[in-house]
Every structure is written in C-alpha cells, then in structure tokens.
C-alpha cells in the first residue's frame, strides 16, 4: 500500500508569488524522506502540494506534475478529497478535535467520509490505529475522554493515529515534533521507523539530528533571498548528505553555518 511519488518540474504559487520553483524528485515507498532547509524556503508549501492541500489557500496553484504510482495528482479527473484520504498529513502543532473524545478523534476520517460502520468494526479500527501510533496502552481505558486531555506528545500520536486510521498510502509530516519534549520526540521517531515498513513517509524537520536519525533520504531546499522562490538544491541518501554533500550550501546548512 506504500506508494512511490515522482515530482516533475513543479512550480508552486500563491497568486502571483512563486514560492517554490522547478522541483523534480522521487520519493521512494517504504522509506522516510526528510526535507530540510532554512525558514521560508518552501518546505511546508512543497509538502502541502503533495496531497493537494496547497490549493485550499485562495489563489494558490501549482504547475508541473506530481505522480503517485504513475497517477497524476493534478489531473482534472483526480478528486482532491480522495487524494487527501490516500495521502495523510500530520501538522506541526498537534491538532486533535478538542470537543471530540479520543475514540471519535481516531475515527473522524471515516465519519467525515460519511461511511456507516458497525460499532464492532469501528472499535477494531480505533484499536488498530492507536496500536499503530504506539498510544493504545496509554489510552485504552480512557477512550471516551476528550482528545485535549492528553499530553502534547500523546496528542501528536493521536493525530498520527487519526491519519493512519483511514489507511493512507503516504504520510506527510510537517515538523511533527517541534512542539514536543525530547522524550515524546523520541517516541515519535521510533514510531516513524515502524511506520515506514508500511507507508511512504515524508517529514519536514529543522532538527538535523532528527533528519540524520530517522530518514533514509534527505532533500535540502534553499532560497536565494527574500521574495525569491525556494529551490531543491540537493537530494541524496541521508548518509551522503550528512557526510559528503556535493553542494557547498548543503554543507554550510547541515554544519550549522546558516539557517
Ligand atoms: N498562505 C500563504 N500565502 C502567501 N504566501 C505564503 C503563504 N504561506 C507561505 N507563504 C510564503 O511562501 C514562502 C515559503 O513558505 P513556507 O511556509 O513554505 O516555508 P518553510 O520552508 O516551511 O518555512 P519554515 O521553516 O519557517 O516553516 C514564504 O515566502 C512564505 O511567506
Ligand atoms: Mg514550514
């Protein structure tokens, strides 16, 4: 169920402003790909274009291609709602639905899709997703409590459970650990390692150690100056990127000389 993503000559706009220019890359299935680069270089913009969340912003559009197992995400016949079900997203700040119980948070994707489901089937899906997000043992006796009663790290794992409950093929994570303490961060990193056996995972991170620890491949984005578009500078296996990158700017960034 894990899928390969191929991006060809993608430009990403907010109205007249071109935020990201000419990105081409391949994201392999059953692997973790990290996006790194200085603030404003377009990492969030680019990751949102991989599940058609970008165009939810008024005036925002892309040119170029994103192929998921060969299928063009931006073809007129492709339904964006369907895309977002297949390609799940986890955001920087844990965003459980505050008025919903832990249980309802996990099953929310199905309810939004207006599917009717037997209680026993729903119970099974909730348990499986919470097991998958390494949260089950901590919440199994309090499933009817509010999602906001959990700690920050637990809430982020709840959001991951919510994302994987609908069985997506790809999981996109935009700085999923930046609001978390070190222990919760390690729990999420362990989880990412487990999830990559089933999913194609993309993670944006500002934390170089994290990119080095969790990812198989790393893509470095950079920006030439304010108002200029962000570009993909270099992408390679994480080992190569952190030891012998080909571009000087990559080396400067990963060794902390800027950004
Ligand atoms: N909703 C928006 N409308 C207009 N411009 C936007 C919008 N969101 C982002 N931008 C612009 O697009 C560019 C890229 O922003 P983006 O948020 O993708 O960067 P980023 O690499 O994720 O940065 P950070 O590391 O700070 O999260 C920036 O110039 C930003 O101001
Ligand atoms: Mg961002």
TrEMBL record:
Residues 5-248 form the ABC transporter domain. PROSITE patterns: ABC_TRANSPORTER_1, ABC_TRANSPORTER_2. Keywords: ATP-binding, Nucleotide-binding, Translocase, Transport. GO terms for molecular function: ATP binding. It comes from the Bacteria. SUPFAM superfamilies: P-loop containing nucleoside triphosphate hydrolases. Gene3D superfamilies: P-loop containing nucleotide triphosphate hydrolases (3.40.50.300). This is Phosphate ABC transporter ATP-binding protein PstB.
